[in-house]
Here is the input.
Amino acid sequence: MREHHDVVIVGGGPAGLAAAVATKDAGVEDVVVLERDAKLGGILNQCIHNGFGLHTFNEELTGPEYALRYVDQVAERGITCLLNTMVVDISGDRVVTAVNPDRGVFTMDAGAVVLAMGCRERPRGALNIPGFRPAGIYTAGTAQRLVNIEGQMPGRNVVILGSGDIGLIMARRMTLEGAKVHCVAELMPYSGGLKRNIVQCLDDFGIPLLLSHTVTCIEGKRRVEAVWVSEVDERMQPIPGTEIRYPCDTLLLSVGLLPENELSRGAGVTLSPITRGPIVDDSLQTNVQGVFACGNVLHVHDLVDYVSQEAATAGACAAQFVREGCAPAGRTVAVEASGGVRYTVPSCVDPNRMAAKQVVRFRVGDVYRDRYVSVYVDDVRVSHRKKRVMAPGEMEEVVLKRSDLEARPQASRVLVTLEEV
Amino acid sequence: MSATTRELTCINCPLGCLLTVTLANGEVTAVTGNTCKRGDTYARKEIANPTRIVTTSVPVDGSATERMLSVKTERDIPKGEIFNVMTVLRKTRATAPVEVGDVIVPNVCNTGVDVVATRRA
Amino acid sequence: MYDVVIVGAGVSGCATARELARTNACICVVEREEDVCCGTSKANSAIVHAGFDAQTGSLMAKLNVEGNALMWELAEKLDFAVRRCGSLVVCTSEEGIEGLNELLERGRANGVPDLRIVYRDELVQMEPNISDTAVAALWAPSAGIVDAFGLNIALAENAAQNGTEFRFNVPVENLQRREDGTWDVCLGDGERLHTRCVVNAAGVFSDTIHNMACEEKIRIIPRKGEYLLLDTTAGSHVSHTIFMLPTKMGKGVLVSPTVHGNLLVGPTATDVDDPEATNTTREGLAEVASKCALTVANVPLREVITSFAGLRAHQAGHEFIIGMPDDAPGFVDCAAIESPGLTSCPAVGKMVADIVKDYLSLEMKPEGEWVDRREGIPLLEGAPIEQWAELAKQDKAYGNVICRCRHVTEAQILSAIHRPLGARSLDGVKRRVTAGMGRCQGGFCSPKIMELLERELGLEPKEITKCGPGSELLVEEGGERRA
Here is the structure.
């Protein structure tokens, strides 16, 4: 007979670890975490800067410290974690195939699966930046690993494209290690990173942030020799005559993160074209029964604290699924996004099952000032909250009350939208 | 001495208010541009005594799992000391075993702040 | 003294070397780059053309059809990936059908088997994503796709197995003919190789090499082709190689599956001066992105993972230049090998080798003294899981996944590094086992592969390169931090 585990968690980063803890705490003993790296903690291990955990632990931790809190919790609970273990397939009926050096290729049946594979960085190729393909072009995360984990320096003279938080963090990191960071160019008219990072990673070191700019050419046949940066117009097209040539040896890219859903796709999980993550209900279950998703594989987060919260929900719901089996099909109410809201997680709720105060997370598509975030149940507005500013780089949330849906048994749709003041 | 002004960006929320701080004889006399109280507090602290936590990684000898040990200043240090601290840390090596919180460099640059490990090695 | 020095370790040079390695000749291949397959051979459409394009009676037509016929058995012997997926030349107007018929007739005259015209209904059956405007297509079932890296590496490894010497990072600076008719090949590192015969398989530099030896000059015009490569998620968007029938409006771009499961779109055709100008351009990439829609609907361009440009060794006569010029006995051109050069290479290798054999009166090695088979490195992505399980049982390193996107393990990378003519750089590893070729483009696996190169080759971190000297990946301070 094939090996069976009640809950198999794919990924041992912040999402997987929090899901594992929650699963165990919900009374499921047989939980296994499969982690492809040699240690638990995922990307937090290389995020050695501070700023993690203010919401979860009420203190400011570095990435490795935050990870360790969960690694310790997992260890205290005696949860099995298989390291150096790469999952290569998940079937629609929850057979997980993995490979590691000790066991080779092996399979296990899972009562429930929690997808927690995280995300990857968008590579240069996805941007179609013209030019040569020399050494010296790294995603910010790869550079971060080289500097913080391997103790290597990828370059001395650096241009950074993209003002996502990793790009900003690496601007400071490279500067502290003695590199000259010439500028951070951002295609959009606003930064995708936190204000705090703009001030403390760029302003502190006099590194210019060039909004509405992009890289238009990479020079250097073997190693980067120069990078051309141009201003762009409203249609994001480079404006001729605005080129600046920066002689440099390195181009770092921080141009977006993509959920890693190749395994999910193989399992038959339906993905959202907007988040590129699974479409889930209030229990964070995908369309494939018993397969749950959380963290950056579901949608890209900016704060790890929210990843941990979301993963705890996924873990608890996976445990419930294992204990109680598939819940009888209840009423399903769609949660839809409009008017500047790009997507919501979850994208449907069951009023009989959902939390009394269901958190609905979303992102906006542009910078909005002085707008109401409104929630409608069918045509009735049930909440209305003013926000001074919202930006695509910051995840937002609204609370959907179960009572609002219980009061309207015929309602078929919840709408999250922005409204002018 | 006459009044001077400095501009800061508030970091407390995504609004990122552009703050104008008026100084007379080095003392903050006014903060404008903020939309809430936090902006005022931030500006006064940032002018009087800007501080930062410094994080980096240093090589570690004798560890089976780690090549580099991540470290941080246990508390924030004066912003002006960042590069001095880095100069020390770029010459620092640690030796395993190390626990999170172990002091790697005591009282770095006489700031009264220790540099501690943020990882096991 | 060598019998033959072959300039260039692309497919033409390596195919020639492999053929000559069956003889008693003493052979050296010299290459200006750090590895085989670094020029035109690495950046092209990787198509095994059927052979209806070239003018009937031309060398190009003959070698294309012969090369296609030889390719499949060669792939079996040398263990590189091919797939005979067939090609469709699509026309989008009724008037175009005449053009398809011309191609059909020419193809038949060239000896291309099984050609026929398919009309819209059948075309849609064959390719559900074909453009709404597609009217008919020329169907060439003998066409296919090939792992261009794999082909080139396999040819080179098999030549090396049979005693061919390879020298890398040595550009040829000059050729001098001695009075006794032998040649000195002067290399960039100062060394001179004395040889009885020189083969010019220098791709976009084949004019430079030719003109060192001959009075009658030739000129190669590097013709740039830019491509977009899409993720394997888009790999089954089409199942045949789709060409567009050229119209008055110009030439389209091809849309094709690749043997690695990706979707390839391109190329452009722009003549450039610099034979090293393998840079992509904003205009070129935009052209590819817009033109693919002429034949195939809804190409998911959001799935692009990389773009690249290659240079074809074009010459004005648009014909391969193969042979011994009258004024340079012992010097053999294998020049201007542009598309369909990749397809033709098995035939090109034989033809060039025959010229050399005749000139030097070479004798074949006795049967049993050379091997005509070579074993490749198994790829796991897309292979049956049982095969992986079996390999991982025998070798733990097959259980250690290094490149997560393409499921490449430590075992395969070690093999890539340690086999004859092994990889010495990130790109060398990539071409041999596809590590870093996937959707993250090496974001996750580069540091791990760098570490394997460092460990296995005994390199300092700062010596590790992307593609040979000058492309170092790290700067010195890093090494000092860790030292």
In short: DSSP finds two helices and ten strands in chain B. Chain B touches chain C at residues 59, 67-68, 90 (CB under 8 Å).
